[in-house]
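Design review, sub-item: ligand-bound model
Attendees: FS, YL, KQ
YL presented the inputs for the zinc ion complex:
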Amino acid sequence: MTSSDLKSGWSLIGNGHIFEFLVKSLAKNNVSGSYIFTGPADLGKATAAHFFARSLVCDNTDSLKKPCGKCPTCIEAVKNIHSDIYLIEKLEDKKNISIDQVRDFIRNLNMSSFLNSYKIGIIKSAENLSQGAVNALLKTLEEPKIKVVIILTVTDLEALPKTIISRSQILRFKAVASNIIHDELIKNYKASRSQAKNFSRLCAGRPALALKFFQNEEYYKSYKAYVKSFIGLLDIDINERFSTIENILGKEARGQEAVRLAAGIVDIWQNLARDLMLMELNLADLIQHEAFIKDLAEVKSKLNLKALLNLINILRQSREYLAANVSPRLALESVAVSF
Ligand SMILES: [Zn+2]
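KQ shared the predicted structure:
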């Protein structure tokens, strides 16, 4: 049984060591009471958690513990309506995952399964747990129950209290090489060669992001718009730059949503500035936004090294502004007027 055999059917790209580990623990009936899936965003942690949950509840898994995908259990699980799989995450516009959410979560996990199967609780982005929620969860982790599995996903393990970490099995997700993402996009998702080339570079090692680009046209369209807004800034005057910012932030985004949107845009702009620096260093073959290389070359021709370094600095500063609750519009404007 090779590692690629083990991976097949889990519909995830890269991170074969995670699948091997989970499949082996399923095969040996050696499943832990709690897991932490940790690693940067968009590596497929939540997808892996769902697949693991489905492998635990499906009655017809094959020799590789792959859920059959056809039984009523699998169909309910795929639709996210399976009563033995319970997911919580931070609600939009709430500051954190509340103690009430965790109490509900625990109550659900403690009810015995109708089907006498596993009960699985998934907490997405567990760094959002409030202090009270952490305490409520700890009690449950201290007294693990048979056939109850809790999976936390988290981008920064350090953000979780040691008391939770020490009681869980830690699985670390890593960035995936772009050639692996490229080949899987073609083989398993029927992407064209040019799509695979573009998205595998653009996602910078994050397969879930590559899939989002490929499967969600709207998402890719708005990503492109953020790239274009950056590229176009140099050619317009200050007033037009302000209205560009107003346009990309939109009128609907408010509060935390606007902060998230602005942080996402700054993120993309930082990566573009990094690409400009790679071009400056004659390392253009490493750039992330290869599909925009002509536009970027034009931007670069208008920025000398000093201006580029200044831009990188201002972008970093605007991240700090956003973290310090400066208005998203002001944070983006500070970048727009800087070059
Ligand atoms: Zn099934």
